[in-house]
Design brief:
The complex is a heterotrimer of chains A (649), B (301) and C (363).
Chain A (H helix, E strand, L loop, with lengths): L5 E2 L8 E6 L6 E6 L12 H5 L1 H4 L9 E4 L2 E4 L2 H19 L4 E5 L5 H15 L4 E3 L1 H4 L3 H7 L18 E5 L3 H4 L1 H12 L3 E5 L12 E3 L6 H14 L13 H7 L8 H4 L4 H13 L3 E5 L1 H4 L4 H14 L3 E4 L6 H6 L6 E2 L3 E2 L3 H11 L11 H8 L2 E5 L3 H4 L3 H10 L2 E6 L4 H4 L3 E4 L8 E4 L4 E5 L12 H11 L8 H11 L8 H4 L5 E2 L26 E6 L15 H6 L4 E4 L1 H6 L7 E5 L4 E8 L7 E5 L28 E6 L2
Parallel strand pairs in A: 6-7, 6-15, 8-9, 8-11, 9-10, 11-12, 15-16, 16-17, 21-25, 22-24
Antiparallel strand pairs in A: 1-2, 2-3, 4-5, 4-17, 13-14, 18-19, 19-20, 21-26, 22-25, 23-24, 23-26
Chain B lengths: L32 E12 L2 E8 L2 H6 L7 E6 L3 E6 L10 E6 L3 H7 L6 E8 L12 E7 L7 H9 L7 E7 L8 H9 L4 E6 L9 E2 L16 E6 L2 H14 L6 E4 L15 E2 L2 E2 H4 L2 E3 H4 L3 H4 L1
Parallel strand pairs in B: 7-8, 7-11, 8-9, 9-10, 11-12
Antiparallel strand pairs in B: 1-2, 1-6, 2-5, 3-4, 3-6, 12-15, 13-14
Chain C lengths: L5 E5 H12 L3 E7 L5 E5 L17 H6 L3 E7 L4 E2 L10 E6 L1 H15 L5 H8 L1 E6 L26 E5 L3 E6 L2 H7 L6 E3 L2 H17 L6 H9 L5 H8 L7 H4 L7 E7 L5 E7 L20 H12 L2 H7 L9 H5 L6 H11 L16
Parallel strand pairs in C: 2-6, 6-7, 7-8
Antiparallel strand pairs in C: 1-9, 1-10, 2-3, 4-5, 4-12, 8-9, 11-12
Helix pairs in contact in C: 7-13, 8-10
Classes of the chains: A alpha/beta (649), B alpha/beta (301), C alpha+beta (363).
The structure holds flavin-adenine dinucleotide, iron/sulfur cluster (3 copies) and FE2/S2 (inorganic) cluster.
The site of one iron/sulfur cluster has 14 residues of chain C, from helix 12.
């Protein structure tokens, strides 16, 4: 067994586990959780227990691949890197650096994310660098910076059990983030009162003192009503009226009519009053929200509204982000509009600082978002560790746009759907095979350690980035600890971290200097128009057993066995109305696309809704989504989409 | 032939041979015996019968089995699946397995050709109590691919016809295309010492026989329930309704015998997949009387 | 020297004793890991052994006799080559293993050898000697071996049992295997005195008094055996399960496994077995899609039927829990054995809240 633990790379909880490599050949012979680590405390979820085996397999990419004629063929690293660098140089010289785009991932290490940003901005000089979080949860960044002051959770996983009350909106947390779910149960045992809000009766139900089931898409209406109730009944903490923005918030809520709640949201006004009282009376309150909130029309405003609830009640905000390094990737600036540490690209001083740090001129232009890039906004695209063909919306069009690119290079563990479209594929190694750090959901920066040797000729994304940079004649640090030194020197949030420190303990959460909270005004927005041809609304949720597009988890025997096929769920009464029997193959279609699956019925799904698990190998809810996005953050709308459902003969 | 099996089997029917209990010809419980596919018969669109011969003569000599027992088939590259014997136990040089294509192992097996090799561990499990029920009237009820594990029993009884009384077979399939062993059924229907009734859930143009679930055929059966034994195998729901109907007809609970199917991996009572309450179906079953099943709360649902 | 002898191993001889043992077999013992974690592992030098530790989350007896992932044999398409596992099973001494885990090893040995002998388990267990270490100070949380007749010290079952008496260990020989490793090391051992035995007695009483967790399982066994616990109670219990399977993975009693054929880089396949769990829905789902244990409740019920029913006690010779407390510390919710036993009894109305509240997890 390895002497030192590593950090699990399957979700943002960030457990510490020890891995025992197999004596000879690929694989492991065992693993166990750390008992002293503040998150794992001797426990792991089903993914931690099983999914590592999915990373260590012979069908992992063994060598770089380069497209020759119509086929991807094995190639040497030198060839793959030089082909890529040559094409990029040519595109930049003929069409400018804006014609090149880079998409990073929320699964790679902080050191890789930082180096990728540096490579894109300082070597390629392109403004087009963005992260996979654009497809998931980027809307929380501007919203939380404008309210609580930091685009991250205010508390750690280990503090959740002390919460007095919780507001949990649009998050399938029990299935998605088991350790958070576990702490919610602990909190409830300690007397915490949970107000859960989800159109679907999720597995949170046994913990929920109050469970509201609003109609999909009506969230802003009930949150505004909740805010109004807190203000009108003076349930806020004494300090709230002094907070900047208090009066503007009050004024923005003037037009709230509590009476419309039953009609718009399907919620009784008394329930909102009860929720407000529970949250105000049981301190401290923690406001949590997940993709149900983050992938809506107007998600930025909705996040601000929820953050207001926490601020008014003197509570804390914890966004429920799924991917293991979602936090770190954003901290490192894998974002189109920020440099590392959330320093806005639009600011002259910020640019000056980074220009001197990186010894280069930074393109001041606002870059394209990941979604704009995959729609064909660039000529050449580099994708690191994200299966964009499936995780971007509008699957069909996205794939054809990727096919039309002049050049696509992909770094991934497997020959994913995206990699199959690429001109160059770099075999990346998994988190088990490299050193680095991840930042967990509670901002804890933790060490990832190489516990097995890289498979085949695979290399870490850091090595790929450094290799590309050197093909451009630029030296970048190859050693993760040296990269961390550079990060600590340039990103104030990470100023305290060094690899020496990680050798003695479990790391610690990064701290922002002194965020000044402010309340944001929450104006009403228009409700989406009714679509008589598409009478049902889509609910997409995560399931415990698969993460993201299933590239990793669908390769694990136990996980696929638990959830062998993805189904479409509707309420039994709708099934009766549609004369559809469970087991029947049905087609769910939206204005954009359609998907075909077997039907199941469940009381947990409200009438008028169709539930499809999110991101499930190849044929996911993304097929149905168009390119409509939240106007502020550019996160696509996956939730509450109008759809119809019919039998396939 | 080896000595009697010592492992506890609940029906009282003790097979003479059981992998691991009466020894292991390969030296290791988990290492299969290689076998060659001699012939493949396509039964229905998703079902094929494979005729297999053990490659090693020493293995073949050791290998005796009884109707109701099963083997773990290794399809190399995919894994193992439990499959019941489907041919006559009197044929010593080869045996047949009828396999429905349902997933990884069975799917890959369907791609194999004559001359290809598979691995065999078995015989596993207990058997139909054919010795104990000599002299009795026999009623066999089976649905879909549930006929496969009963076929050795049928062939054995037909070969020893004088040892048994009245002999009835009720067989239900989903559609006419799903009927297994059509070539056997034609022959069996010609016999006057064997009453064969067939039905399908959904008929087609060519089908002139009964339509309806298999239990509807019970009205046509004429035998003395007090002196009869029923052997059943098929989908759980069919077994459930058949058993209820049989008990109503006057069959006592220890005269209704069924073969259960559970997810199985090891076949030797170790992996735990096949447990029903405290009973390991792979070594103590899969054949049980209805009376015995009453003792396992987990089968009541 | 005889089985049953109670000898003394002076602490200043411990190192030499185990160096000499190491010449014969590899030593597995508790080792200091990162940030205070203690996990059993192969030790390079006996001086690495941590003699004072509470409990290891990763059950050493199970892990070294029935590993989480175990290669069974490998083959190539067409012909197959059986791999002789015995060749790659080293002789090993598990040193410092706790009483509960020794009891669990004996449980698994019995299970894996009757009525059919599992060759992989047998080879490993034949090659393993257990040096158990009495819990002078049972960890105050979680474990309850004292209610399960499995600790904190043993009357039998160990090969050698060590009790820390300050500057020396009481060294008890419990089996022929224990005798075999002791005789050649006679020079490190000496006779014990009455005072040593009295000291040991005092430690026993002290250790017994420290338990804060109690599990009165007998009543639950009666309810489970007779299938009296209503399904609604099981479903309510199951409603919070996360399906992680830690409760069975880390349980030193649980034996369930699954089998996979894994492709290797050289084109061959390895048939590998790995721990499986009745807490997974896929554990029993059949090819037809039918699942005989379709709900969380039915699966929790299954686990407790195996842990605490008279039917299994008859099969296994004891109930399926040694009170190691690993399910207590590893379950993401509260479906560990003592909690479920308590909740069953509460549901059946015979649970009386203790008057003075124990501080442990019971409350
Ligand atoms: C005693 C016994 C006798 C059987 N006899 C026959 C027979 O004569 N003919 C026949 O066609 N089938 C028979 N079966 C069923 C057959 O074993 C399964 O169809 C087969 O194991 C499916 O394996 P697979 O790898 O093809 O499917 P997979 O791809 O592994 O899985 C498909 C589905 O089957 C389930 N499954 C996987 N492995 C098993 C397993 N070992 N046992 C049960 N379910 C499993 C999975 O959970 C999944 O839902 C028998 C089963 C038993 C227990
Ligand atoms: S049931 Fe729990 S306490 Fe008992 S032996 Fe298993 S893990 Fe230990
Ligand atoms: S409790 Fe479950 S996992 Fe443990 S041995 Fe029994 S059936 Fe197997
Ligand atoms: S450890 Fe707890 S949460 Fe995990 S499967 Fe067992 S009972 Fe369920
Ligand atoms: S199939 Fe493994 S125990 Fe029965």
């Amino acid at each position: 067994m390895n002497d030192k633990p590593t950090t699990c790379g399957f979700c943002s909880c960030g457990c510490a586990l020890y891995v025992e490599p197999r004596k000879s050949g690929l694989g492991i012979s065992g693993l166990c959780p750390s008992t002293t680590h503040p998150v794992s405390t001797g426990r792991l979820c089903i993914k931690g227990w099983n999914a590592t085996t999915s990373l260590i397999r012979v069908d992992r990419l063994q060598t770089p691949l380069v497209r020759k004629g119509n086929e991807l063929q094995p190639a040497s690293w030198e060839e793959a890197l030089s082909v890529t660098a040559d094409v990029l140089k040519r595109v930049i010289s003929t069409s400018g650096s804006e014609a090149v785009g880079v998409i990073g991932s929320a699964k790679t290490t902080n050191e890789e994310c930082y180096s990728l940003v540096k490579f894109a901005r300082a070597v390629l000089r392109t403004p087009n660098i963005d992260g996979a979080c654009r497809f998931y949860d980027a809307s929380l960044i501007p919203a939380l910076i404008d309210t609580i002051g930091i685009p991250a959770s205010q508390i750690g996983v280990e503090q959740l059990a002390e919460a007095g009350s919780m507001l949990i909106a649009g998050a399938n947390v029990m299935e998605q983030l088991a350790h958070i779910g576990s702490r919610i149960q602990d909190a409830v045992e300690n007397g915490c009162k949970v107000v859960a809000v989800d159109p679907r009766k999720s597995r949170l139900a046994p913990q929920a003192g109050l469970f509201l089931h609003p109609k999909p898409g009506s969230d802003l209406t009930w949150v505004r009503a909740l805010l109004k109730t807190i203000l009108d009944r003076k349930l806020y903490v004494d300090a709230a009226p002094q907070m900047p923005g208090f009066e503007e918030l009050r004024a923005s809520l003037d037009d709230v009519v509590i009476g419309v709640l039953p009609q718009v949201c399907g919620i009784e006004p008394e329930a909102v009053v009860e929720a407000a009282t529970i949250l105000a009376e049981n301190e401290p309150c923690v406001v949590m929200f997940g993709l149900g909130v983050l992938q809506q029309q107007d998600s930025t405003i909705l996040v601000k509204a929820l953050a207001n609830v926490a601020l008014l009640l003197g509570g804390y905000v914890m966004p429920l982000r799924g991917q293991n390094n979602a936090q770190g990737a954003c901290d490192m600036g894998v974002l189109k509009d920020y440099l590392p540490g959330y320093e806005p690209i639009s600011s002259v001083e910020t640019r000056a600082k980074w220009e001197s740090a990186w010894q280069c001129a930074i393109n001041p232009q606002a870059g394209l978002s990941a979604i704009e890039m995959v729609q064909g906004g660039v000529k050449a695209l580099l994708v690191f560790g994200e299966n964009v063909a499936l995780s971007a919306p509008n699957t069909e069009q996205t794939i054809s746009a990727l096919e039309k690119l002049d050049f696509l290079a992909v770094s991934d563990l497997y020959l994913t759907e995206t990699a199959q479209l690429a001109d160059v594929v770099f075999p990346a190694c998994s988190f088990l095979e490299k050193d680095g750090t991840f930042t967990n959901i509670g901002r804890r920066v933790q060490r990832v350690r190489r516990v097995i040797d890289p498979i085949g000729e695979s290399k870490s994304d850091l090595e790929v980035i450094v290799g590309l940079a050197s093909a451009f004649g630029k030296e970048m640090a190859t050693d993760p600890s040296a990269v961390m030194k550079e990060i600590a020197a340039t990103v104030p949030l990470y100023a305290n971290f060094s690899y020496e420190q990680f050798e003695t303990g479990w790391g610690e959460p990064w701290r922002a200097s002194t965020p000044t909270p402010r309340l944001a005004p929450i104006h009403a927005t228009d409700l989406p128009p009714e679509e008589p041809d598409y009478p049902y609304q889509l609910l997409a949720s995560r399931i415990n057993f698969h993460t993201q597009t299933g590239t990793m988890s669908a390769r694990c025997g136990i996980l696929t066995r638990e959830y062998p096929e993805s189904v479409v769920e509707i309420n039994p009464s709708d099934a009766e109305k549609l004369k559809l029997r469970p087991g029947r193959v049905v087609r769910v279609s939206s204005k954009t696309g359609s998907l075909t699956r077997r039907l199941a019925v469940s009381d947990a799904v409200p009438q008028g809704c169709v539930h499809v698990p999110h991101y499930f190998g190849g044929d996911s809810a993304n097929m149905l989504a168009g390119y409509e996005c939240d106007s502020i953050s550019g996160v696509p709308v996956y939730k509450g989409l109008p759809v119809k459902i019919e039998a396939v003969s | 032939m080896s000595t009697e099996v010592q492992a506890p089997t609940l029906t009282g029917a003790k097979p003479r041979n059981m992998w691991g209990v009466t020894g292991v010809p390969t030296g290791n419980l988990y290492v299969p015996m290689p076998a060659v596919i001699e012939k493949i018969i396509v039964e229905t669109p998703d079902t094929k019968t494979f005729r297999l011969r053990l490659e090693d003569p020493k293995h073949a000599e050791w290998f005796t089995w009884e109707p109701g027992q099963f083997v773990e088939v290794s399809v190399f590259g995919a894994g193992e699946a439990p499959i019941g014997f489907a041919s006559s136990p009197l044929e010593r040089s080869w045996f047949e397995l009828t396999v429905v294509n349902r997933g990884k192992v069975t799917g890959l097996m369907h791609e194999l050709k004559e001359g290809d090799r598979v691995g065999i561990r078995g015989p596993l499990g207990n058997c139909w109590p054919l010795e104990d029920i000599k002299g009795k009237d026999i009623l066999i009820i089976s649905g879909g691919c549930g006929l496969a594990p009963l076929r050795p029993a049928i062939l054995y009884i037909l070969a020893n016809r004088e040892d048994y009384g009245e002999f009835w077979l009720l067989y239900g399939a989903r559609t006419p295309a799903d009927i297994n062993y059509k070539y056997d059924l034609v022959e069996w229907e010609k016999r006057n010492d064997f009453h064969v009734l067939q039905t399908v859930d959904v008929g087609d143009e060519s089908w002139t026989g009964n339509v309806g679930v298999v239990t509807t055929l019970l009205d046509q059966v004429k035998l003395d329930a007090a002196n009869a034994v029923a052997l059943t195998c098929g989908p759980p729901i069919m077994i459930k309704f058949a058993t209820l109907a049989l008990v109503k007809m006057g069959f006592s609970e220890d005269r209704v015998v069924t073969s259960l199917e559970r997810y199985m991996k090891c076949g030797v009572g170790k992996c735990g997949h096949c447990c029903v309450n405290h009973v390991y179906l792979c070594t103590e079953g899969p054949v049980f009387t209805y009376a015995q099943l009453q003792e396992f709360p987990e089968t009541r649902a | 020297m005889n089985v049953g002898d109670k000898l003394i191993l002076k602490k200043n001889n411990v190192s030499d004793f185990f160096y000499s043992l190491q010449e014969q077999m590899q030593l597995i013992a508790p080792k200091q890991r990162f940030a205070g974690d203690v996990v059993f592992d192969l030790v390079n030098s006996p001086d690495e052994i941590v003699w004072e530790y509470g409990h290891d989350i990763y059950p050493p007896g199970k892990r070294y006799l029935f590993p989480h992932y175990e290669d069974m044999f490998s083959y190539r398409q067409g012909e197959q080559i059986a791999i002789d596992v015995a060749a790659d099973v080293p002789r090993q001494a598990i040193v410092g293993i706790r009483s509960c885990d020794v009891t669990a090893v004996r449980f698994q040995e019995r299970f894996f050898s009757s009525p059919i002998v599992d060759p992989f388990y047998k080879t490993r267990s034949d090659n393993t000697v257990l040096f158990s270490l009495v819990c002078n100070e049972p960890p105050k949380k979680d474990c309850f071996c004292i209610c399960c007749d499995a600790g904190p010290y043993l009357e039998s079952g160990f090969d050698v049992q060590l009790t820390d008496l300050g500057d020396r260990f009481l060294y008890e020989i419990g089996s022929e295997k224990g005798l075999d490793v002791s005789e050649p090391r006679e020079k490190y051992l000496e006779a014990s005195t009455e005072q040593d035995i009295a000291e040991r007695k005092r430690i026993e009483l002290h250790a017994d008094s420290l338990f804060q967790t109690a599990s009165y399982i007998a009543k639950a066994i009666i309810y489970i055996t007779s299938d009296e616990v209503p399904d609604e109670v099981w479903e309510e219990l199951g409603s919070t399960c996360f399906r992680c399977a830690a409760c069975t993975n880390l349980c030193p009693i649980c034996t369930c496994y699954t089998v996979d054929d894994r492709p290797e880089p050289d084109g061959s396949f390895t048939r590998c077995r790995s721990w499986d769990s009745c807490q997974y829905a896929g554990f029993t789902r059949e090819a037809s899609g039918h699942n005989p244990r379709p709900t969380f409740g039915s699966r929790v019920k299954r686990r407790f039927y195996h842990k605490a029913s008279f039917q299994y006690i008859m099969r296994d010779g004891r109930h399926g829990c040694v009170g190691c407390g690993r399910c207590v510390s590893s379950c993401l919710t509260k479906l560990d054995l003592p909690s479920v036993v308590k909740r069953i009894r509460r549901a059946m109305h015979d649970y009386i809240e203790p008057i003075s509240k124990p501080t442990a997890f019971l409350e």
